[in-house]
Structures are given as structure tokens and as C-alpha cells.
Amino acid sequence: MEEQRSNAGQGLGIAGLVLGIMAIIMGIIPCTFYLGILLGIMGIVLAVVALIQANRGFGRKGLIIAALICSSIGFVFASVWVFVISNSGVQHVIEQVMREKGFGGRDRFEHMDWDADTTRGFEDDTTSWSDQPSDMTDMTDSLKNLEGDEQ
Fold first, then answer.
1. Of 14, 7, 24, nearest in space to 63 by CA
2. pLDDT tens by residue, 93-122
3. Handedness of CA 44, 49, 50, 54 (dihedral sign)
4. pTM reported for the whole predicted model
5. How far apart are the first and last CA of the chain?
6. What is the C-alpha separation between 121 and 128, in angstroms, rounded?
7. For the ranges 87-91, 126-130, 140-144, the one whose mean pLDDT is highest
8. Helices (H), 9-133
9. Is the distance from CB of 82 to CB of 37 less than 8 angstroms?
10. Staple partner for 47: which of 26, 30, 68, 89, CB 3.0–4.6 Å?
11. If you ran DSSP here, which 8-state letter would residue 117 be given?
12. d(CA 46, CA 78)
């Protein structure tokens, strides 16, 4: 005697699949990974509940398993972004590699010889406050008047 198949859990399975697909999309985009985590968790919960219903009601499980897989993948993608962006994650590893390879830190410029060629563009920057345009002077006078520091 063959068991009859029902549609138990199919509605929740479809909802879980939609949430899983959205979790993958939101999990890939760096700005929306928090939404990807939320959608992934909701999709996993719906897929698990649908799977329990399908087991009890002898329903089909293919769509529900696909929903569980998509939701899990979306959750993992979003979680990877959390790890990448967090301070203790990849940023620490990058800083350590840069320090070891000599790319970072203040001692980076200590070995340079600051001769005339290096500082060539800086000697022209000798503009004083009195050389500023009259609009700037008028604005500072207005600000001083507003503050009560009249000249």
C-alpha cells in the first residue's frame, strides 16, 4: 500500500525559499548584510517548521530542503561580511601583515632623506592671513562681531 502525499509544509517552504533567495542577495551586498542575516534566520526557521510539518503529514520535502539550503547560504554570506567588517576580523590581519611587510606605521618615512627635491612643493605655501581675500576678512570680522569680540 502506497502512502499518500500531501501538501503539508509547502506554504512555509515557499516562504522560506523566498526569504533564502533574498538572504543570498542581501548577504552578498556589503551594505545590507544585517538584513541578510535577519532574512536568513527567518528563512531557516520557516524551513525547519515546514520540514517538521512535511514529516508529520507525509508531504514533499524537495522544496523545503532547497529553502533550508538557500537560507543557510544567505546567512553564511552575510555572516562573512560581519567578520570582514568587524574590528577583530580581517582588519587586524591586514594591519599585522602590513606591519610585518613594512607598509605601515610611523617609521615608514624615517628612512627617507628630506632634501630640497622632496620638499619642493612646500616652499610656495607662504600665504599669510593678511594675503587672504577681503571676503574672508569681512567674514571673520562678522564672526567676531557676532561673538562680541569687536575690534
1. 14
2. 777 777 777 665 545 555 555 555 555 555
3. positive
4. 0.56
5. 104
6. 17
7. 140-144
8. 10-28, 33-56, 62-85, 90-101
9. yes
10. 68
11. T
12. 18
